[in-house]
Amino acid sequence: MKVLVFDNKRAGSLYAAQIIADKVIINNSVNEDTVLGLATGSTPTDMYRALIEINKNDVSFSRVITYNLDEYYPMKKSASHSYHYYMYDIFFQHVDIHEENIFIPNGELKNNELNEFCKEYELSIKRNGGIDIQVLGLGLNGHIGFNEPGVSQNSVTRKVALSDTTREAAAKYFEGKEKVPYEAVSMGIKTILDAEHIVLMAWGNEKAEIVKKSIEGRISEDVPSTFLQEHENVTIILDSESASLLNRSRVSLIESKLS
Ligand code: GLP
User: Fold this and answer.
1) The domain spanning residue 222 has which CATH number?
2) Residue 39: CB within 6 Å of ligand 1?
3) Is 24 in contact with 64 (CB distance < 8 Å)?
4) Which DSSP string do the residues of 26-62 spell out, in sequence order?
5) Domain of 204, in residue numbers
6) Which residues partner with 239 through β-bridges?
7) Which atom of ligand 1 lies nearest, measured to the CA of 146?
8) How many distinct structural domains can be found in the chain?
9) Is 141 in the pocket of ligand 1 (CB under 6 A)?
10) What is the pTM of this model?
């Protein structure tokens, strides 16, 4: 794992955006698509802002194809809490991406339609050549996407139950925990680990403990993010707060960007 520590969220987000931009620039130059796996939550917002600027400065996203990690279930696309709404509001409506290249798990389907949808989601990623860069945030319990503790390493896109901790953390966006859905549709751990490059960001003291467990802890389904240790191309982007508990001598590759 490559662990990079920045002064603050903004600097780290710019770096993450540049990783994506570099890939898009290379692929655009040889007329190839770039396939991105995208995350929601408060973590990637500055990265999206930076990508919007990069897009304005002539890096076209017309050959970018995106697959979002997850969506609440049930959830109307138009609801302000939906990840659909978030993605269009924060990112998609500000860049030149083509509508038909945007894929987000559908929280509007009936229960008996979900299986087929999830299978097709996985196939669609494969048909487009797999994910080049998967962006991740990190849940307080180590979830990535909505893959909660106990998840299998072989899991793929499916309906999942949300843990109490996750519903608690989401309560602030839903005017109370009782309004937070109990389920979601999420890519699996296998879907994530199949990506060529994984970029995980985490900011603030609140994430320091789970960052430490994710990077230095034993690989276990109890902390889903520890599965990332098995992937050969992971970049972890932190600020000084989220990195504060890391045992630097034990992490093989820490490149400090702290000034
Ligand atoms: C949410 C999302 C994740 C996200 C995580 C962290 O529940 N499903 O994809 O990475 O929790 O959220 P935040 O970035 O707001 O801390």
Assistant:
1) 3.40.50.1360
2) yes
3) yes
4) HHHHTT--EEEEE--SSTTHHHHHHHHHHHHTT---T
5) 2-257
6) 6
7) 8
8) 1
9) no
10) 0.95
Per-position pLDDT tens, the chain of length 259: 999 999 999 999 999 999 999 999 999 999 999 999 999 999 999 999 999 999 999 899 999 999 999 999 999 999 999 999 999 999 999 999 999 999 999 999 999 999 999 999 999 999 999 999 999 999 999 999 999 999 999 999 999 999 999 999 999 999 899 999 999 999 999 999 999 999 999 999 999 999 999 999 999 999 999 999 999 999 999 999 999 999 865 443 344 444 4
Give the chain's end-to-end CA distance (angstroms, integer). Answer: 22
Cβ of 5 less than 6 Å from ligand 1: no
Q: Which atom of ligand 1 is nearest to the CA of 207?
A: 16
Q: Two tokens at 167?
A: 């519903």
How many residues are there in the chain?
A: 259
Task: Point out the catalytic residue in the list 46, 70, 71, 122.
Answer: 70
* Catalytic residue from among 55, 68, 101, 141: 141
* Catalytic status, residue 148: yes
Give me the residues paired with residue 45 across strands. Answer: none
Which residue matches tokens 């770096």? Answer: 15
Whole-number Cα distances in Å, 5 to 29, 164, 243: 31, 30, 7
118 backbone dihedrals φ, ψ, rounded to 5°: -65, -40
The answer for residues whose C-beta is within 8 angstroms of residue 247's C-beta and 6 or more apart is 212, 216
What is the spatial distance between Cα 207 and Cα 228, in angstroms, rounded to a whole number? 16
Q: How far is the CA of 105 from the centre of ligand 1 (A)?
A: 15
DSSP 200: E
